[in-house]
Design brief:
By secondary structure, the protein is α+β, with helices and mostly antiparallel strands. It has one domain: Aminopeptidase, CATH 3.40.630. Helix content is 40%, strand content 24%. Strands 1-2-3-4-5-7-6 form a 7-stranded mixed sheet, with helices on both faces. The chain starts with 9 loop residues before the first strand and ends in a 5-residue tail after the last strand.
């Protein structure tokens, strides 16, 4: 008898499984332009530095009790989305120390490139308050599984269910993602050439009653 596949659902990934989120995002974003740009040409150290950066991003979400959503199979995350809610809690002191240690290891140039990107993202006026989709990724072996759509639906549901939120924003540095997000109701708010061969698109999906 063939074992039936369990119906996939989205969960808030508990902090004890935080490293699973790092594994998924590292796999999904290993060749992503913005990660390669920030980390730079570091040869064989690229993967370890990528995980260190992602580990900080994930830790920041947990430290503020922000959403870390996941789709799992056999209690292992296979798709993950991390978000910043409309009102962000103040960072705890240990997170500030963690941030400094991460940038000390990644280097001054990497930090400068990251902060430069942040300044470009801040050029465009977006509605407030809103959710921001920091990252969404699916393990490569689970591509075309529909898990990305499942996570997006959950993200949109969070915003639609929050009376303080006007919608969801995101940034993408992959032009092929633009029509995909447009299909899900996002609109391009701005586009800028942030560096040589690195373009970034800022997008927003308003909560106008769409499902």
């Amino acid at each position: 008898m063939t074992k039936s596949r369990a119906i996939a659902t989205v969960e808030q990934l508990p902090v004890v499984r935080a490293e699973q989120a790092v594994v998924v995002l590292a796999d999904a974003f290993s060749e992503y332009p913005v990660m390669q740009y920030i980390i730079g040409d570091v040869g064989d150290d690229y993967d370890s530095r990528l995980r260190k950066l992602l580990r900080f991003f994930v830790a920041a979400r947990y430290s503020r009790n922000e959403p870390v959503l996941a789709v799992s199979e056999d209690e292992q995350a296979v798709a993950v989305a991390i978000l910043t809610p409309p009102f962000q809690a103040e960072a705890l002191p240990w997170l500030t120390k963690h941030r400094e240690s991460v940038w000390q290891e990644l280097g001054r140039a990497a930090r400068s490139r990251y902060e430069s990107l942040g300044s470009f993202w801040g050029l465009f006026t977006l509605p407030e308050p809103r959710y921001h989709l920091n990252m969404i990724g699916v393990l490569k072996e689970h591509a075309c599984s529909g898990y990305g759509r499942l996570l997006l639906d959950a993200v949109h549901g969070l915003s639609l269910g929050d009376p303080d939120s006007t919608g969801v924003s995101l940034n993408t540095e992959d032009e092929s993602n633009v029509p995909l997000y447009e299909h899900f109701g996002y609109e391009v708010v701005g586009h800028v050439n942030a560096a040589d061969n690195l373009h970034t698109w800022v997008m927003f999906r308003p909560d106008d009653g769409r499902e």
